[in-house]
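Hey, does this match?
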Amino acid sequence: MQKYCKAIGALVAASALAAGTASAEVEYSIYGGFNSDYIFRGYSNGVDLTEAGLSAATSYAGFDITAGVWYGSWQQGAANFDEVDYTLDVSRDLGFATASIGYIFYHFPNDGGGVFEESADLYFTLSKELFGINTAVKYFWEVEDAGSGHGGYLEFAAGKDYEINSCLTLTTSSILGYLIEENTLSHAQVKLGLAWAFTETATLTPYIAHSWALTEDSFWAASKNELFAGAVLSVSF
């Protein structure tokens, strides 16, 4: 597992070095929140997810670069679990669409209690605004097999924001997941949020969402329809 920690560390360090060399402006964001359920690609890992994260974004030579770390803690039955994800994303506007490539390393302290195993994904995204709707297609390729059955995953996303006033924005999004190896849809999900920008840099977004299970194959055999909700506070600087 150390090679993946070293890989993400080297990528983040290289991004920071490039940004510093170019004297580029770096934007930071910190966030935290609570979610009634931890829904991962349509599958419920547990309940009462508390999360926190930090990201840094900059631009260099026409590329947008974002590095981040996310921490989550939740409960599954009588057991508590923790997860730390490290992410690096590089994107570029190609005119007809925005393309990005990213890397995610999923780390579970204490070996995930024997339930969750470390893994890593490379992902590729094409996104574009169509008729006022933000659309995206994202493919995840599991470069380290954790035996969880979520490799070869394709996701179609669409969403639109509606500004109510200078402080309130209604956010809507939808996701349709597809399992490449199983050749079947995994789930569909819709989400409705209300973003309240109570300062120039701080936003509180409560939300409600629903996920529908669309398959009984593989890892998703135990998945089911889930109604969940939560709220996230983010601050940018």
About this structure: The mean pLDDT is 88. The helical segments are 2-21. The chain is about 10% helix and 65% strand. The radius of gyration is 18 Å.
